[in-house]
Amino acid sequence: MKEKPRTTRQLEGYYRRLLKAYGPQHWWPADSRFEIMIGAILTQNTAWRNVERAVANIKREGLMTPRALHRVSMRQLAEMIRPSGYFRVKAGRIKAFVRFLIQQYEGDLRRMMSEPVGILRSKLLSVKGIGSETADSILLYAGDVPVFVIDAYTRRVLSRHRLIPSKVSYDRLQRFFMDHLQPRAALYNEYHALLVKVGKEHCRPTPACQGCPLKVYLNGKQPKI
DNA sequence: TGCCAGGCCGGGT
DNA sequence: ACCCGGCATGGC
């Protein structure tokens, strides 16, 4: 048995500490896989509280299905999701996504998730308004596919701790995690949610390191990735 | 009052 | 390959 690389031990240490401090985060909070996908679009650069209002508005009208959102007018959709911000842009993105679902998979999420992951990911990225993070959130949180989701918090936490340089592309940072961790959806799910949690609590633009469960890891080393 | 939040696109270097 | 302006609401 060969020893684990240092980076793997480091990343596992971060995870262990975060899980001990905060416990399971139970992501993604939603009533259905489709709701997760819509939430992934709505939460782009937006506080989750505002997304919850938009989601609630859609569900109150009984429209949280691919076909219902395909039928509804742009005007009504935009009005329902107004609280989540960028509401005209996001209405167009949701429209593009449900059109994609219906044209490619007849609106059947099971058909979508039966595609090979690489193919599906690039198809999602070809939908206007779905970028890397949104595509991977859909794959991981709605589809249980083991892809690691990168976001602003992930970058901030890791670069503050000098685990990564401050400027790294999404794909390289994603590979950094996936090259050093077992490909398990439950692990990636919890890890990303925990990074968001510690980011909100401590790794804000103005750092609040007092009481941060990761404080012990701060050091001057900067591994190449 | 201003800054921030679970990004992405299009156009320009 | 980056870098930038635009998109918008609600909380602190």
**Helix run count:** 12
Task: Report the sheet with the most strands, covering strand number, pairing sense and barrel closure.
Answer: none
CATH superfamily of the largest domain: Hypothetical protein, domain 2
Please mark out the parts with pLDDT under 50 across 5 or more consecutive residues, or reply none.
Answer: none
How is the topology of this model organized?
Layout: H1 6-22, H2 33-42, H3 48-60, H4 66-71, H5 74-80, H6 87-105, H7 109-113, H8 117-126, H9 132-142, H10 152-160, H11 170-180, H12 185-201
The chain binds a DNA duplex (13 and 12 nucleotides) through helix 2, helix 3, helix 6, helix 9 and helix 10.
Summarize the structure.
With 225 residues, the chain is mostly helical. It has twelve helices and no strands. The chain folds into two domains: 6-25 and 149-217, Endonuclease Iii, domain 2; 33-142, Endonuclease III, domain 1, CATH 1.10.340.
Give your account of this protein's structure.
- There is one protein chain.
- The protein has two domains: 6-25 and 149-217, Endonuclease Iii, domain 2, CATH 1.10.1670; 33-142, Hypothetical protein, domain 2 (Endonuclease III, domain 1, Orthogonal Bundle).
- 60% of the residues lie in helices and 0% in strands.
- The protein has helices at 6-22, 33-42, 48-60, 66-71, 74-80, 87-105, 109-113, 117-126, 132-142, 152-160, 170-180, 185-201.
- Helix 1 (6-22) packs across helix 12 (185-201).
- It is globular and about 55 Å long.
- It starts with 5 loop residues before the first helix and ends in a 24-residue tail after the last helix.
- 28% of the residues are buried.
- The chain binds a DNA duplex (13 and 12 nucleotides) through helix 2, helix 3, helix 6, helix 9 and helix 10.
